[in-house]
Specification:
Blueprint: E1 2-11, E2 14-24, E3 29-33, H1 40-47, E4 55-60, E5 63-64, H2 69-74, E6 76-79, H3 91-101, H4 106-119, H5 134-146, E7 152-156, H6 164-179, E8 183-187, H7 191-197, E9 200-205, E10 208-213, H8 215-221, E11 226-232, E12 246-248, E13 251-256, H9 259-271, E14 275-282, H10 286-293
Helix pairs in contact: 3-4
The structure holds adenosine-5'-triphosphate.
Adenosine-5'-triphosphate (ATP) binds near residues 16, 36, 37 and 41.
Length: about 300
């Protein structure tokens, strides 16, 4: 269980975080989103015990993070936005090195490493880290974060710069971690991924939480279901209707904001000689929500 209360972080006199409060249950995926500079990395670094908040309180699984950062780190895996790996080391040696730092026995290191390489579909074949592709390096960094089998994972833009296939496999892997009971907190600019996998979303703007909740809760907050009605008409020169519509790429479109409005609209269009082609229901996406919030 994570309890964050009124977290504030100043860099000099600049408030990068300004009163962040939220709760998160175990075995959940939390997505932290917001425009550039909103405070995502700052929040993640505080949660990973890497920087101290200027004010506020953060308790993770009963551990006060500011007071006992070392206890927190035993059960935490952190993936920075840009991980600097030791380029001249082989993947095997690199993962073994981190296993040793966490005090794991040799046979445990060997087993963990083999399991993680298989799960992440990594086949380093004795290669040095410097010889790997960007996607493979990111996966090695993810494997490193998991060597000591922590219960909490904090990933700063885990899929940034990855091709769609690799990105998808990382996201599927994150889902699997949650299904095995781990809590994952990640920031991302790919909002489709956040929408797809996160149990809870935190939207930051200029260091403040502007919205938080499950996707259905956020949809409710930012406007509910709308209906897009696509239709055809006979002769555009003679077509008249009281319904507001737009023409885009030769397609006629009107939007209804309730089922009653949808019924009225389709009846009016039919009476005016239009033919309904298709009706699509549409929830606001995270992208539309961020757009609405503004920078
Ligand atoms: N070490 C620092 N010293 C001074 N200002 C900083 C420092 N780190 C971050 N900031 C500022 O704090 C604000 C929040 O930065 P942060 O990196 O947390 O945002 P972010 O949401 O992760 O951004 P991005 O999406 O671009 O990665 C920004 O205005 C940034 O310039």
């Amino acid at each position: 269980m994570i309890t964050a209360r009124s977290l504030v972080k100043y860099y000099g006199d600049f408030p990068a975080l300004d009163g962040v409060t939220f709760d998160l249950d175990d075995a959940r995926i939390l997505g932290v989103i917001g425009h550039n500079g909103a405070g995502k990395t700052t929040l993640l670094k505080i949660m990973a015990g890497l920087i101290l908040p200027t004010a506020g309180n953060l308790v993770i699984n009963g551990i006060d993070v500011a007071r006992r950062p070392l206890d927190l780190k035993q059960n935490l895996g952190y993936l920075p936005e840009e991980s600097r790996l030791y380029e001249t080391m082989t993947v095997d040696a690199y993962l073994a090195f981190f296993g040793e730092i966490y005090g794991l026995r040799k046979e445990v290191i060997r087993r963990r490493r083999e399991d993680l390489l298989a799960e992440l579909a990594l086949e380093p074949n004795g290669k040095k880290i410097g010889e790997l592709s960007k996607g493979m390096k990111r996966k090695v960094a993810i494997a490193r974060s998991l060597m000591h089998d922590p219960g909490l994972l904090i990933y700063d833009e885990p899929t940034s710069g990855l091709d769609p296939m690799t990105s998808r496999s990382v996201i599927e892997y994150v889902k699997g971690l949650r299904d095995r009971g781990k809590t994952v907190i990640f920031s991302a600019h790919n909002l489709f991924q956040v929408e797809e996998v996160c149990d809870m979303v935190l939207i930051l703007r200029r260091g403040r939480v502007v919205a938080k909740g499950t996707m259905p809760e956020l949809r409710e907050k930012f406007g509910s279901l709308t209906y897009q009605v696509f239709f055809r008409i006979g002769d555009p020169a003679t077509f008249t209707t009281s319904v507001d519509y737009t023409i885009s790429d030769g397609r006629y479109l009107t939007v209804a904001h309730s089922i009653e409005e949808l019924n009225r609209t389709t009846a009016t269009l039919a009476a005016d000689g239009a033919t309904i082609d298709r009706i699509e229901s549409h929830y606001p996406t995270l992208e539309e929500m961020l757009f609405k919030i503004g920078q």
